[in-house]
Specification:
heterodimer, A: 187 residues, Rna Polymerase Sigma Factor, Chain: A, Arc Repressor Mutant, subunit A, 2 domains, B: alpha+beta, 48% helix, disordered C terminus
């Protein structure tokens, strides 16, 4: 499933409440449901899967440690995405300094048919996006990563970022302008 | 002619809008493409296992904190009690109150906390200022001159040998019975 399947909101709420009561299995289920979604956001923010996986892991640990503080279980997703985006933001600066990276995702399977040319182009794009994202402000990076996410309304993005919808739109606009300039060779 | 011009203008605007839109879409598509490609190779089971492992570690630390709250409470209690005890001890270890009644002399021994009497001494002999509580009934502080009397042939530098000092009132007090000033002074031993 890996988060791709639709889950009833009340089921999520039940899982969150159980997780708050200390039920580890319920939290594991939440991890399974949201790992893909959180990875989507983290990859957009960080540009590569390895860094994103690290941010997601750290984000879930933070969420686990503080799930008791979540007052509205029905807003788990917004709360979780806020944690993960904040973690990714913290990680952006440390990304280059990190000596040991957890190799969760080798982006390309060995047996996958990718030509060396295609692979180098993809790697180049990955590096270019990673570098470009580092040049955005925190809010711009969050906004551009969250804005295009499926099933996430602009209002929810605003709640995650703790600002108004108009502000989100402005940050997205600014981020796009900057990225267009920074990535013009790839457009 | 005007109609053609208007049409060209509209087309230009539409074209610019289209380019802008295209630019935005290209950026978004570029991001989408990169994200999709990055996520394609992710082993979700492996990621799940890694998260689970991290959660196990977190759970252990969480549990250990929960497991020993009593120990922490007891330790905190002992620490608080120790602080209270030390505070009380320090406060009660004042030099003994003395009455500076006229014509009365007294010998007072400082217990441990010499500093609590705020005595400043210039060794090996000399005069200094001292603040002393001059009695529980009066509860006022007198500024006195301190004179060290070297009874043991002089204190060795840095030693803690006992020495006598005389604390006299700023204004010499002559006893009614005519005793000398020194009889009315207070002698401290420390």
């Amino acid at each position: 499933m890996n988060g791709s399947q639709k889950v009833n909101a009340s089921d999520i709420e039940k899982l969150v409440k159980a997780g708050q009561a200390g039920d580890r299995k319920s939290f594991d289920e939440l991890v399974r449901l949201y790992q893909q979604r959180t990875m989507q956001v983290a990859v957009k923010m960080l540009g590569n899967a390895d860094e994103a996986a690290e941010a997601v892991q750290a984000g879930f640990v933070k969420a686990y440690m503080s799930i008791g503080k979540l007052k509205e279980p029905k807003r788990f997703e917004v709360w979780l995405l806020r944690i993960v985006t904040n973690t990714a933001i913290s990680q952006r600066r440390a990304a280059k300094r990190r000596a040991e990276r957890i190799k969760i995702a080798d982006c390309y399977e060995d047996n996958k048919a990718v030509s060396p040319v295609d692979k180098s182009v993809t790697e180049e794009l990955k590096e270019a996006i990673t570098t470009a994202m580092l040049k955005l402000s925190k809010k711009e990076a969050k906004a551009i990563a969250l804005f295009g996410l499926k099933d996430l309304s602009q209002g929810q993005v605003a709640r995650i970022m703790g600002c108004s919808v108009e502000a989100v739109r402005w940050h997205v606009f600014r981020a796009r302008q900057k990225l267009k300039a920074l990535l013009k060779e790839h457009l | 002619m005007a109609c053609v011009s208007r049409k060209a203008e509209v087309e230009g605007i539409a074209k610019r809008a289209s380019i802008m839109k295209e630019g935005k879409e290209k950026i978004d598509l570029l991001f989408e493409r990169n994200a999709e490609e990055q996520l394609t190779g992710v082993d979700w089971n492996e990621l799940n296992a890694a998260i689970s492992s991290r959660l196990d570690q977190a759970q252990k630390s969480k549990t250990s904190v929960r497991k020993y709250p009593t120990v922490f409470k007891i330790a905190a209690g002992i620490a608080a009690a120790a602080v209270v005890f030390i505070t009380v001890t320090v406060k009660t270890e004042k030099p003994a109150d003395v009455q500076l009644d006229k014509g009365i002399s007294a010998v007072v021994k400082f217990i441990d906390k010499k500093g609590s009497a705020s005595i400043e001494i210039k060794r090996p002999s000399g005069k200094s200022q001292v603040m002393v509580d001059i009695g529980s009934s009066q509860r006022k502080v007198a500024r006195c001159d301190v004179e060290i009397i070297d009874l043991n042939g002089g204190l060795r530098k840095g030693s803690d040998e006992a020495a006598w000092i005389i604390i006299s009132r700023p204004e010499p007090v002559l006893a009614d019975n005519g005793v000398s000033r020194y009889n009315a002074d207070l002698i401290y031993l420390f």
